[in-house]
């Protein structure tokens, strides 16, 4: 079927959050690099764009309904809301053209 979109399951939503937390990626949510890595992990049968959109449009505002510790949801919120001038972002390289945040190893 052309144009068919599979609905996300609650399990997939939980896996997205788990991936973010397990990979300490809370400060990488606004860019594209982490989402591309998530797609390449083969843990998800989704494109990176789909994963990011799902997080931004459905998961982020509904974390309180998921099986997530309050401290973890706050960690994700603070990471997502961080700006390039945030002290916790000092080890990141912000590329304005790409709207991406890259962490140095």
UniProtKB/TrEMBL annotation:
Gene3D superfamilies: Homeodomain-like. It holds the Pfam family Myb_Rap1. InterPro entries: Homeodomain-like_sf, TE2IP/Rap1, TERF2IP_Myb. It is found in: Nucleus; Chromosome, Telomere. It comes from the Eukaryota. Acts both as a regulator of telomere function and as a transcription regulator. Involved in the regulation of telomere length and protection as a component of the shelterin complex (telosome). Does not bind DNA directly: recruited to telomeric double-stranded 5'-TTAGGG-3' repeats via its interaction with terf2. Independently of its function in telomeres, also acts as a transcription regulator: recruited to extratelomeric 5'-TTAGGG-3' sites via its association with terf2 or other factors, and regulates gene expression. The keyword Transcription regulation applies. Keywords: Activator, Chromosome, Nucleus, Telomere, Transcription, Transcription regulation. PANTHER family: TELOMERE REPEAT-BINDING FACTOR 2-INTERACTING PROTEIN 1, TELOMERIC REPEAT-BINDING FACTOR 2-INTERACTING PROTEIN 1. The keyword Translocase does not apply. It comes from Nicrophorus vespilloides. Belongs to the RAP1 family. The gene is LOC108558757. Homodimer. This is Telomeric repeat-binding factor 2-interacting protein 1. Residues 8-60 form the TERF2-interacting telomeric protein 1 Myb domain.
